Amino acid sequence: TAQLTDLPAELLEHILCFHVLNHIDICNVSCTCKRLHDVCHGRGKVWAHQYKLRWPRLQRFYQQNESYDWLKEFKTRHMVGQQIRRTVESISKRFFTEVVLGDSFAEIESLGAPEHFCEDELLGILNSDKRKCLTLKYYAKKILYFHRQQNILRNLKVFLERPPEQQSALEGAVLVDQYCNPLADVTLESISAQIEEITDKVKKHLRVKNATHPSLRASQGDCFVLENLEFQRQVICALNAVLYDQLQYKGNERDFYNPLNSYIHQVLVRRTGIPISLSVLYMTLARKLGVPLEPVNFPNHFLLRWCQNQRRSDDIYDYVYIDAFGKGKQLAAKECENLIQHQVGADYYSAISTSELLLRMVGNLLNIGKRGEGNEKSYQLLRDSLDLYLTINPDNVQYLLLQARLYFHLGIWPEKVLDILQHIQALDPSQHGAVGYLVQHTLEHIQHKRHPVELEVKKRSEPDHRDVLYSVGLIMKHKRSGYNCVIYGWDPKCTMSQEWINTMRVHQLSKGADQPFYNVLVQDGTCRYAAQENLEPHSAPLEIAHPEVGRYFTEFSDTHYIANEELQTRYPEDMCSTHRTVEEHYHVNGCRHNES
Fold first, then answer.
1. What b-and-e string marks burial along 76-99, b requiring 16 or more CB atoms within 10 Å of the CB?
2. 139-142 long-range contacts, CB within 8 A, separation 24+
3. Angle at Cα 21 formed by Cα 20 and Cα 26, nearest 5°?
4. Are 495 and 464 in contact (CB under 8 A)?
5. In a 10 Å sphere around its CB, with 0-12 CB exposed, 13-18 middle and 19+ buried, how is residue 159 labelled?
6. Displacement of CA 438 from its chain's centroid (Å)
7. Residue 75, class by beta-carbon neighbours within 10 Å (0-12 exposed, 13-18 middle, 19+ buried)?
8. Of 34, 114, 492, 510, which has the most beta carbons under 10 Å away?
9. Cβ–Cβ under 8 Å, residues 488 and 566
10. What letter would DSSP give residue 394?
11. Pairing mode, if any, of strands 553-556 and 535-537?
């Protein structure tokens, strides 16, 4: 130590920043003597290096020229990380419900820690070993999803409080996109940068046609309007040439009801969308180049309008209507009716505000959610779009009632359901029938939650279960449909209603309903209930990419999934039989392979 401490401080710092040393090593070194303690002071390079090594994603939150107490930052971030892990682990031991999630978010907020510390720890959990800690990741993802959505809703409310002229359609579309895709890396800055690239391409095309065009002199961020209609026409021609001919943007006629068509970041990536999303892109580009297009809430087919007079006009015949979905086709007022095959009044040709545009955009997503197959994905889209719609228009009784019914149907957030119903009753007393029914059943739900029924424990050793061949965690293949899946539950006999049994033609099976049935998570993201005779162990077990896998399993072990604590409690004898079934299956398959 004597020789080491004789070295200059700069050289000691360099040595102590060697990548093999971690924070525990630095703590131990700083305790050896005053000299090394001073070299490892909080604002020095050593702790700055440790912090950057441990949490590289957080560097963007620090100014390069500022001085920080890195030891204090390290301790705070380390403590926040431990507390967040404890919170996630605590809800991992209970099944996920919205109430638990809300409480957990409140627990994280109550830490008083910087928001980016919390998010970084949750991301750290999600990015850990792919096959392990699946249950921890499942709940970390739920909390991060909820956490980001709350922030985006706050941003949307601030956006809506601005004067209408300061509400950009693009920014509103990005907020909708972010709320529905909170785990995606969607930012206004990245979207704006991509749009700026398209703008530059349009300018390049414009320069070839008219090298002195006024729009070419405009700098990024300039807000201007071309007074000359001919200059505007040149911009529109250049925009159509670049967007539709050069970049090949088009309306998605083949997959119109795909929600990706409504998300602006997906429109830019896939170069396709629906009338409203393509109109937002088209209008944003045109305005950046001096053409003041306006959004038109035309029924069934969103349009833009372009005034042909020097002054703003109320006459619908003073406008050309642009169909961004139809490659920028220009239509006269009454020609628009050909798009929808019926006549409409003059009101439908009026320009609308950004908040009205967002309601139309969110309404489209809402309808897609309602059209869904009743799976986790469609329910999530329905919930997200209802949240957005009611943030923009909080007193819409129809959608408030739909939100209350949705939460009631899913059995989540009963206290919030009561708040929604109370709000509906205040807005529209004529809804007392529907409100009263839901209030009564929601109160029963709350009472039931206070005295929960214990889950049935299923033991394979019981006589009634002797016909059950397969265990939870096994990777299976459906003999008829061919899908891959993992078992997360079973019944010794089919427990579905007679109506379901008839609809699914269970009676056509050789053993009908009088055989074990299995709850399975399918590779395509659905959950199904399959008869034993239709399932067989997969010959080459693979991971099942289903969003709910982490809810039931903690790890994938190459041949099967290992159940988490909750599932093991319900199926205590399945764990050993899973290993046995896997071994037996491979032994049999191996023998067959050798025989052939």
1. ebbebbebbbebbeebbeeebbbe
2. 139/88, 139/91, 139/92, 139/96, 139/550, 140/88, 141/183, 141/550, 142/96, 142/101
3. 175
4. no
5. buried
6. 29
7. middle
8. 492
9. no
10. T
11. unpaired
Q: Give residues with Cβ within 8 angstroms of 121, minimum separation 6.
A: 80, 81, 84, 85
- Give residue-wise pLDDT tens across range 333-390: 889 988 888 888 888 999 999 999 999 999 999 999 988 766 778 889 999 999 999 9
Q: For 15-34, how does the pLDDT look when each residue is reduced to its tens digit (9 = 90+)?
A: 999 989 999 999 999 999 99
Predicted TM-score of the model (pTM): 0.86
Pairing of strands 250-251, 272-273: parallel
Query: Dihedral sign, CA of 422, 424, 428, 433?
Result: negative
556: phi then psi, degrees, rounded to nearest 5:
-105, 125
- For the stretch 316-333, pLDDT in tens is 999 999 999 999 999 998
In whole angstroms, what is the distance from residue 320 CA to residue 229 CA? 12
Buried/exposed 397-408: b ≥16 CB within 10 Å, e otherwise: eebbbbbbebbb
Query: pLDDT of 29-58, one tens digit each?
Result: 999 999 999 999 999 999 999 999 999 999
